[in-house]
Every structure is written in C-alpha cells, then in structure tokens.
Amino acid sequence: FLTAEGNLVAAAVKAIQKVTGIKTALSTSGGTSDGRFIAPTGAQVLELGPVNATIHQINECVSMDDINALEEIYFQMLVELLV
Length: 83
Known about the structure:
Radius of gyration: 14 Å
Structural class: mainly alpha
Strand content: under 5%
Number of strands: 0
C-alpha cells in the first residue's frame, strides 16, 4: 500500500528533513505490516521507525542516536500537525 499524500505524509517528510537533513522519498519497501489493512479505510497510514540492520535477528538492537532522532522527528510532526 502507499498512502496518498496528505497532512500526515507532508508532516513526516518535513520533520525528517528538519531533524536529519535527509530529503526522504516515499517507499513501500520493507516487511509486511498491518498498515495494509488500515489503508483501504481511507486513513493516512505511515510507518516510520529507525533503520535497523539487526532487525529480527539474534542480538537485535537499535542505536540510541537513532532513537533520539526518531523522538525528535515525531515531536516535529506533532508540532507541524497541531500548531
């Protein structure tokens, strides 16, 4: 699934660029998600998380720098959507 562009997607793209300096591209790559069941309802669906080279493996871990950046991205998204 790919959510049509809207306020949620725009806020995410803006927040990612503000926090990381990365101009992101929308993508449907990655694993399976429950978002595919929600998207047909017309709701905007966005999956956003840290890059994780060890996902679903022994000793799975995420960098604290990535967690901190993700926290700031979520915060900036809320500012964009609610202020």
